């Protein structure tokens, strides 16, 4: 085994930049705080998301100085990074394609060309024939520093294609429409949208527009050939704490306008068979109650909801003619510990994805007689998902399956005969032998006695005597469960002796809705202590050792990284924080920021609630940087990020540089051409992954392997 190098050597050879402290005193609830680095927030941040060139020169100068420092410190790893990129790329089938999805006379799919960064949208006649390229993402991206094709959908008559693109990373989408007979772009170009749209008729689109605060707040109707300026307002949400999106039931009869924050939802429907009737409210919003609606035909809706204290959700039906809450009738009752995640209603069947004991399964219900059966698998940990299709009157369900050792598979499943047909298996061109790897499900004990699941992957030859380094990933927010799915990227670390682990901590729904509720607002600290408990368990059981763990998380998981770095710095060799939400208190106190009002149900409202203020202040990473030793740190940001604005990590790094007492490397890099999701192209993204992995390998003493 290669000896672990001194990680401070190249970091101390170059002087890191230091942001000038410019103290600003902040007052709230009789409490005073001093923010030395508030000046790093651009006064023109809304404009920066649309045009990065308008960033103030002194802020740009600081970010570029940090980028230059990152290049100097990690420059010696360029050879390793290049090797990792080649390795990662070698595991991707470059001309990959999706399984075609049938719709009427055609089947639609996405595919890539060799060397292509962006997808092509294609179709073929349903019964076979010559492929037609409808949209070429590579061609559209030419000459652009950033490009992402966010969505594409064909009109009901198959004559046109609408698609949304983001050209800055700021998630400000432009919708275009293409005539599929001629390939010509129509003059109908819709700017300032949230990227959520659908075809209402063959010649009209419904789409969601962003408001002045970058929030998806209103639904509009565009009729092809008419000026966008005259588009009809269909719905406007007055409460800045609620976001708006548009959808469609599986039957395609009903358009849905969905209004929601993190704990409350409301749906309005538009019947395409009676378009003049306008929007109809299903059930008025009720704080803490969530519901989502589907329709597979007939006279009843099928609704997934947590109403009536159904913490882990139940499924009800309601008449199409009167869908209000008072008419809801239980179809699939609530069972505590069985979390129903989603549902789809077909003409003769209801499918639901649920999780029990931490593992997912798909349940098929015949609507005619209520008979049910489940699709499940036998591995200790795996990922399962239902794949959306266009058609409603079908017996075929498409689903995906993978585990940490098993590449992704896509099946078509006959819901009557129970026959499954493998339609696609993820190909690893450079080769993959599942027998070389071991996957495990472990359980750590949290400080309050709860058991925290940990999914583990390691090479079968990796010694479990505490000598192995470990990459421990965590998220823990918004009820998002991190699946134990196959990752070709993780293999580069595992093949070099790393243990790869996912901590399924509170704040996600991995063990049911209560797992989420126990990791938000007044119980948020459970998320952090669960992650620490997971790391300590891995060290105690020989999978790794204290000081050998590289912790990784992004966005709200980046907040987790900042919190555990403050709380248990000696547990970790390094922290990798990607687009980290670390200036929590200042952000939650600023209701002009895009996500702040909708985030109050998740974290609490420190403006209105002094207890929420004190609670957030007690864990907010930026507010709790201390004069102590920290592990090595790699921090990544995106200049046009509307979700976690670039200045959050920039301020955090500046305060860490001025406060921490160690000489461990602290490296900060901002992607000046991208936002929250990083690079837009699939191979460009590999460069960012390899950058993180080379840092982890260097810190763990495995850079020479």
From TrEMBL:
Chain ranges of the Peptidase S9 prolyl oligopeptidase catalytic domain: 485-698
Region (Disordered): 1-29
Superkingdom of source: Bacteria
Transmembrane segments: none
Gene3D superfamilies found in the cross-reference section: alpha/beta hydrolase (3.40.50.1820), Prolyl oligopeptidase, N-terminal domain (2.130.10.120)
Statement: the UniProt record of this protein carries the keyword Hydrolase: yes
Domain (Peptidase S9A N-terminal) ranges: 20-425
One BP annotation, GO: proteolysis
SUPFAM superfamilies xref list: alpha/beta-Hydrolases, Peptidase/esterase 'gauge' domain
A GO molecular function held by the record: serine-type endopeptidase activity
Keywords: Hydrolase, Protease, Serine protease
Pfam family, one: Peptidase_S9
Protein family: Belongs to the peptidase S9A family.
PANTHER family: PROLYL ENDOPEPTIDASE-LIKE, PROTEASE FAMILY S9A OLIGOPEPTIDASE
Protein known as: S9 family peptidase
Phylogenetic lineage: Bacteria, Pseudomonadati, Pseudomonadota, Alphaproteobacteria, Hyphomicrobiales
């Amino acid at each position: 085994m290669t000896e672990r190098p001194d990680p401070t050597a190249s970091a101390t050879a170059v002087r890191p930049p230091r942001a000038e402290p410019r103290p600003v005193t902040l007052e709230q609830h009789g409490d005073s705080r001093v923010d030395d680095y508030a000046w790093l927030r651009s006064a023109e941040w809304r404009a920066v998301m649309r045009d990065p060139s308008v960033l103030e020169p002194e802020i740009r100068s600081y970010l570029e100085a940090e980028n230059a420092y990152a290049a100097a410190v990690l420059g010696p790893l360029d050879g390793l990074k290049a090797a990792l990129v080649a390795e990662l790329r070698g595991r991707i089938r470059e001309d990959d394609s999706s399984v075609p999805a049938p719709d009427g006379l055609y089947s639609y799919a996405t595919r890539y060309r060799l060397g292509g960064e962006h997808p092509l949208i294609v179709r073929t006649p349903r019964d076979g024939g010559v492929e037609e390229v409808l949209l070429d993402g590579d061609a559209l991206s030419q000459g652009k520093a950033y490009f992402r094709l966010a969505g594409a959908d064909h009109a009901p008559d198959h004559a046109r294609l609408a698609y949304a693109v983001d050209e800055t990373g700021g998630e400000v989408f432009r919708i275009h429409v293409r005539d599929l007979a001629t390939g010509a772009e129509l003059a109908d170009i819709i700017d300032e949208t949230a990227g959520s749209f659908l075809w209402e008729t063959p010649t009209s689109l419904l789409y969601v527009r962003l408001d002045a605060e970058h929030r998806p707040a209103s639904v509009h109707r565009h009729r092809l050939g008419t000026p966008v300026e005259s588009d009809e307002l269909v719905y406007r949400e007055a409460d800045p704490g609620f976001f708006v999106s548009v959808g469609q039931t599986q039957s395609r009869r009903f358009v849905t306008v969905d209004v929601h924050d993190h704990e409350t939802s409301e749906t309005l429907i538009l019947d395409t068979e009676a378009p003049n009737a306008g929007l109809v409210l299903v059930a008025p919003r009720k704080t803490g109650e969530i519901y989502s609606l589907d329709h597979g035909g007939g006279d009843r809706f099928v609704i997934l909801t947590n109403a009536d204290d159904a913490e882990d959700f139940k499924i009800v039906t309601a008449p199409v003619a009167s869908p209000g809450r008072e008419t809801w009738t239980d179809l699939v009752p609530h069972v505590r510990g069985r979390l129903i995640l989603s549902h789809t209603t077909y003409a003769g069947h209801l499918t639901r994805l649920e999780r029990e004991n931490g593992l997912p399964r798909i349940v098929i219900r015949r609507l005619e007689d209520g008979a049910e059966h489940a699709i499940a698998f036998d591995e200790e940990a795996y990922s399962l998902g239902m794949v959306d299709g266009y058609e409603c009157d079908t017996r075929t369900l498409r689903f995906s399956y993978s585990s940490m050792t098993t590449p992704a598979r896509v099946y078509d499943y006959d819901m009557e005969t129970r026959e499954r047909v493998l339609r696609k298996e993820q190909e690893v061109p450079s080769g993959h032998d599942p027998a070389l790897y071991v996957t495990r499900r472990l359980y750590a004990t949290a400080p309050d006695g709860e058991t925290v699941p940990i999914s583990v992957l390691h090479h079968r030859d990796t010694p479990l005597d505490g000598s192995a380094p470990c990459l421990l990933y965590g998220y823990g927010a918004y009820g998002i469960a991190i699946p134990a799915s196959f990752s070709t990227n993780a293999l580069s670390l595992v093949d070099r002796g790393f243990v790869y682990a996912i901590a399924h901590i509170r704040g996600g729904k991995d063990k049911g809705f209560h797992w989420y509720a126990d990791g938000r607002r007044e119980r948020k600290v459970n998320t952090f202590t669960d992650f620490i408990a997971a790391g300590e368990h891995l060290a105690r059981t020989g999978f790794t050792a204290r000081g050998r763990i590289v912790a990784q998380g992004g966005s709200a998981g980046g907040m987790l990284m900042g919190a555990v770095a403050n709380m248990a710095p000696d547990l970790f060799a390094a922290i990798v924080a990607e687009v980290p939400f670390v200036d929590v208190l200042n952000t939650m106190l600023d209701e002009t920021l895009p996500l702040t009002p909708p985030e109050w149900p998740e974290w609490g409202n420190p403006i209105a609630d002094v207890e929420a203020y004190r609670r957030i202040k007690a864990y907010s990473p930026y507010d709790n940087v201390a004069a102590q030793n920290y592990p090595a740190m790699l921090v990544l940001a995106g200049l046009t990020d509307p979700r976690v604005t670039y200045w959050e990590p920039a301020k955090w790094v500046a305060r860490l540089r001025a406060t921490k007492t160690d000489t461990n490397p602290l490296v900060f890099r901002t992607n000046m051409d991208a936002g929250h999701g990083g690079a837009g192209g699939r191979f460009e993204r590999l460069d960012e992954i390899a950058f993180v992995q080379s840092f982890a390998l260097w810190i763990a003493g495995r850079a020479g392997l």
